[in-house]
Design a protein that fits this description.
Length: 601
């Protein structure tokens, strides 16, 4: 991402307020012009739902940050990517052509240092960590379309062409830069934000004094343009309270920022000065565009932009909001390119009330969660329990309780007991179409109302609310089952038995609809449900959001044998209780055997 996942908002504050360093402009410094550059189609609405129509031929391009490879992925990285995947899958269900971009940010001093500490070359280190991300994304059912690495040759070509275009615009100049530098943050710090002994408040390490001859981007030139863009397009930054933050930063005054490093070898060389490398953020942000390149012999910025830019959605953590909502649009304006339609800054995941991050050493390992609880459980918990845009906290006890109650009980058990009754009383075969079974039944209308509600929530990025609406379908399905009590009706025979058979069709149609509506969140469990309803994998893969309409199940359709689609997770207390119970049973059997032997003697 341009994603310095472990950077805090405070890390970048010095770039918007006068830092304690000297900036001496050389004779080569150009005179700033007062011309403004506005994004194309500034009146175009950027509401997420506005572009979620199958009639729109534009590809829906969404991105995660490009994750920094100083260490293996953690749950914070996984959360962003799971959310992006849910959005991508929903858009595909609507019939949109989706280009889902993720990748790794692999340049910078910190990467070289991390590689050296492991006794490896920077490129080998990047290969290892980048592959770790790909492996985790596979384990989490992440359906990305493009995986860009900033060490890819096609990315370097796009970065150099973009840099040259901005240089030709007169927006890059050379100057001396002196200040206190945090190697871990890879940026200069304002002395006012540092702790005692000039320690970085994030990494608690002493910042070093540095003086460099760097190239600068004229961010201040785009002050008015950014203010007008944010005022005219309030949906550019979401949620709305993040927009307020960005507007405050811009209004406080923008300062030009350094876009090169003289002391960093591991990076893309500045096109007009091989003694300097391009600053990692100026480099990595362009991964959103370079990812769109096809396998071109000679990557070309214009052709690449025509392959899908602008992005419909940048999905990021709130700590890198400034880079995406201020620096990035100014860079695009300078290059004459359209701005992304929306930047959405979500909150942090916390553990023990603290933000999780590689640099803080308190990460929640996603691989451990997947291995312990399974992919569906991990995806569902974080999308359901964290209100998208706000911070959320992880608790293993709550994790187990939520996924057991929602996935194993409300949905899984409803399907299992219905299929069991169908097998016992109808030879696992549907006696009537689901449309005919629900004629004159208000229950069908309630299901359709909740489906529509879930759709709106998905479109508005309210992922937790979408899960809630789908779960409510399961809740009313269970209530319907309990009120109708088909097991009793079957015992009565005659018309009561016929009514019971229809009730089973209604419940199974309800679960089928739940399966489609949960595809963005729990794709693997949705497929297992569909398989139990007698569908093939091809039929499941071809399903769209239109299949959430009532009427999918048909008469004489044969269901599979009932088996749990989501195994209930046992918490530690339950495991210990079972072990105690097994121990008591074994002890009891031993005493009984001993008594029998005594009696026999």
């Amino acid at each position: 991402m341009a994603v310095r996942v472990n950077c805090s908002v405070q890390n970048t504050f010095c770039l918007f307020n006068p830092p304690l360093f000297s900036l001496r402009y050389r004779a080569s410094h150009f005179k700033l012009k007062t011309q403004l550059h506005f994004p194309q189609n500034p009146s175009r609405r950027a509401l997420f739902c506005a572009c979620a129509t199958s009639q729109n031929s534009e590809p829906f391009v969404l991105t995660t940050p490009l994750y920094y490879v100083n260490a293996p992925p953690h749950m914070g990285s996984a959360y962003t990517t799971i959310a992006a995947d849910a959005i991508a899958r929903f858009q595909r269900l609507l019939g949109r052509k989706v280009i889902f971009i993720t990748g790794t940010d692999e340049h910078g001093e910190k990467i070289a240092t991390a590689a050296m500490s492991q006794g490896s070359a920077p490129h080998d280190h990047c290969n290892l960590i980048s592959q770790a991300y790909k492996t985790l994304w596979k384990d989490l059912d992440i359906s990305y379309d493009k995986f860009i690495r900033t060490t890819d040759s096609k990315h370097e070509a796009i970065v150099k062409e973009f840099y040259s275009r901005v240089l030709a615009k007169g927006d890059i100049y050379r100057a001396d830069y002196e200040g206190l530098y945090c190697v871990n943050c890879e940026e200069y710090k304002d002395e006012k934000e540092l702790l005692e002994n000039n320690c970085c408040p994030v990494h608690l390490k002493t910042c070093v004094s540095r003086k460099e001859d760097n190239y600068f981007f004229a961010l201040s030139k785009y002050q008015k343009s950014l203010e007008e863009t944010l005022n005219k397009n309030p949906n550019f930054v979401q949620p709305s309270f993040r927009l307020n933050e960005v507007q405050g930063w811009v209004k406080s005054g923008l300062r030009d920022f350094s876009i090169s490093r003289a002391s960093v070898d591991w990076g893309i060389p500045v096109p007009n000065d091989k003694t300097q490398t391009i600053y990692v953020w100026f480099d990595a942000l362009l991964g959103y565009i370079s990812a769109l390149t096809d396998d071109q012999d000679q990557p070309d910025l214009r052709k690449t932009v025509n392959s899908g830019w602008p992005a419909a959605l940048h999905l990021i953590g709130k700590d890198i909001l400034r880079f995406h909502a201020v620096y990035w649009p100014a860079m695009l304006m300078s290059a004459g390119l359209s701005l992304p339609k929306m930047v959405f800054g979500h909150g942090f995941l916390t553990k023990d009330g603290m933000k999780m991050g590689k640099s803080l050493g308190n990460t929640l390992e996603p691989n451990d969660l997947v291995n312990k609880f399974g992919t569906d459980a991990v995806r569902y918990f974080f999308l359901r329990e964290v209100e998208f845009g706000s911070d959320g906290d992880y608790s293993e006890e709550r994790f187990i309780n939520i996924v057991n109650a929602h996935l194993a009980n409300t949905i899984g058990n409803l399907l299992n007991r219905t299929l069991g009754l169908l097998k016992k009383n109808c030879q696992s075969t549907l006696v009537v179409d689901s449309t005919m079974a629900a004629e004159g039944n208000a229950f069908k209308d309630n299901v359709e109302r909740l489906v529509d509600k879930a759709s709106v929530h998905y479109e508005n990025l309210s992922l937790s609310s979408a899960c809630e609406a789908v779960l409510e379908i399961g809740n009313i399905g269970n209530v319907y089952m309990d009120e109708r009590a088909p097991w009793s009706l079957f015992k009565q025979g005659g018309t009561a038995s016929e009514a019971a058979a229809k009730d089973l069709v209604i419940i199974l149609e309800t679960v089928r609809i739940i399966a489609i509506a949960l595809v963005p969140v729990t794709p693997s469990m949705s497929w297992r449900i569909y398989a139990q309803l007698g569908y093939s994998k091809d039929q499941f893969d071809a399903a769209t959001w239109r299949d959430t309409k009532w009427g999918g199940l048909k008469a004489d359709q044969v269901m599979a044998q009932p088996k749990p689609v989501f195994a209930r997770i046992e918490n530690q207390a339950e495991v210990e209780d079972k072990e105690v119970a097994v121990g008591k049973t074994a002890k009891s059997k031993g005493k009984l055997k001993q008594a029998q032997e005594v009696a026999g003697a």
